[in-house]
Amino acid sequence: MTVTKQLHPALDEHTAAHVAELFRAFSDTSRVRLLSALSRQETNVGTLAEMIEISESAVSHHLRGLRQMGLVIARRRGKEVFYRIVDKHILTLFEQGVRHVRQE
Amino acid sequence: MTVTKQLHPALDEHTAAHVAELFRAFSDTSRVRLLSALSRQETNVGTLAEMIEISESAVSHHLRGLRQMGLVIARRRGKEVFYRIVDKHILTLFEQGVRHVRQE
DNA sequence: ATAATACATGAGTATCTGTTCAGGCGTTAT
DNA sequence: ATAACGCCTGAACAGATACTCATGTATTAT
Fold first, then answer.
1. CA–CA separation, A72 vs A64, rounded Å?
2. Domains of chain B
3. What is the pLDDT of residue B104?
4. Strand partners of residue B72
5. Of A20, A96, A100, which is closest to B29 when you measure between CB atoms?
């Protein structure tokens, strides 16, 4: 039985691009604050804007991106639109980053 | 007795900025490929450049950033400089992102 | 010493990103 | 119907980012 040294190639460009895209969702201060809010509870746009102190428009733009990536989902109730994080794994990934930063 | 609605604040700006910075390290296709290579084994700059098909200069620039963030560390052996990922938690975080992308 | 190799660095540049602003759309109140 | 409210959207712009190119710095070979 021959023991060949497994030469693992790096990630192909396509996969790497997707991974980068995922992490890019967490790579902006405002979005991190958005997601930290949403990680606690479903929240509407206006409240999010207040919490993180950017305009509703800016919040909307960020949420659109996150929505298009399938990371958050919207639910309308009356005039307000509530957002929440879709995937539990995403939440875990995000929180792990937060934890890492906190302990050092 | 008044029932006040507990308003969990979002992450403060300072912490959020650090979290964003961490994730930003993984938010570029080339860096993802770099890190995926390094996640398998310590590698020198030239080899990395070959593997991910960008110039040595570009690799150097990326590695400088990662080094300054304390995510990778350099070790010189002769003319070559080998890089590796410093922290196991960082590695885990990165790999979790990769896994998430792969299964969908 | 001189040249060659491997990598680092700064400047310059094209592209990307986050924000604001102005206006639009859907829902509710009057 | 009309106004008010909450949110969305596209354009425009400032700042950030990733790359190339030219050059610089260690280290090794001749």
1. 9
2. 28-102 (1.10.10.10)
3. 75
4. B85
5. A20
pLDDT tens, position by position, for chain A (104 residues)? 677 655 467 899 999 999 999 999 999 999 999 999 999 999 999 999 999 999 999 999 999 999 999 999 999 999 999 999 999 999 999 999 999 999 87
* Nearest beta carbon to residue B22 from set A33, A52, A101: A101
Alpha helix ranges (H) inside chain B:
13-24, 29-38, 45-52, 56-68, 88-102
**CA atoms of B62 and B74, how far apart (whole Å):** 13
H/E element, B100: helix B88-102
Q: Tokens in use for B62?
A: 């990326």
Residue contact A102–B15, C-beta within 8 A = yes
Residue with tokens 């930290």: A36
Best of A23, A44, A103 to disrupt the B interface by mutation (most B CBs within 10 Å)?
A: A23
Contact list in B for residue A92 (CB cut-off 8 A) is 96
B5 near A79, Cβ under 8 Å?
no
Say which amino acid occupies B56: E
Q: How far is the CA of B79 from the C1' of D29 (A)?
A: 12
